Amino acid sequence: MRRKVVAGNWKMNGNRQIAKDLAVGVSKIVERLNSSAEILVAPPFVLMTDVAENVSSSVNLAAQDVSSYDNGAYTGEVSVDMLSEFGCAYSIVGHSERRALFGDTDEVVAAKVAKCVEKNVQPIVCVGETLEERESGKTLEVIGGQLHSALEKLTGDELEKVIVAYEPVWAIGTGKTATPEQAQEVHEFIRGEVAALDEATASVMPIIYGGSVNAGNAKSLFAMADIDGGLVGGASLKLEEFEEICKAIG
Ligand code: PGA
After folding, report:
1. Which one of 38, 95, 187, 193 is the catalytic residue?
2. pTM score, two decimals?
3. Sign of dihedral through CA atoms 38, 44, 46, 50?
4. Which end of the chain is flanked by fewer CB atoms within 10 Å, N or C?
5. Which atom of ligand 1 sits closest to the CA of residue 126?
6. 44 near 64, Cβ under 8 Å?
């Protein structure tokens, strides 16, 4: 059986009080649902302490990004070891907002992924096409390229630590979701590409969908054969809605 993962990406939202309230709220959700899925929250770095001090041990902490460097003169960066001190065992890497707004190239993403697996933090590697790329029939080519550059240097053991998130750029924060069939097509492709790197890992790797996941569409997305959960932005800031999404994963 494959692991299921639902991750709340809070992005640059909230403050200390909101983070504490969300941490307590998500802990209650996880307690109530007794879900078989791994439920993650990814707060802004500076709110990690407030979250770590207020979540139950059944909620997993994730970072929204991480440095590819260990330590030193890298102003503004946060290392994997610093995150690990908070019990943060996952990091989103290569989110489309990082790629589009902050210059995270495929090479940078690959270096961050490599650092995470070296240090035993699970990278949630984001891949996704723009609307223009989809409309010109380039979706699978773009996803394949992003995936290969992020994963091709990893050994089988390292690959096992990776979670892939398919996030069509046109669906992020727009209220437009990929249909379950559109998402499934790409997830199946991703699993095939991972199989070409390492057959055994492909069957167990969680591949999660992100892009306007909400209480109304989560169930039909999660019902697809290769969709193992969700990376949830906006809806992860609303506890009732996040609970419905966590319920949908079962
Ligand atoms: P969204 O964001 O759910 O608000 O579309 C998803 C993401 O960017 O991870």
Report:
1. 95
2. 0.98
3. negative
4. N
5. 9
6. yes
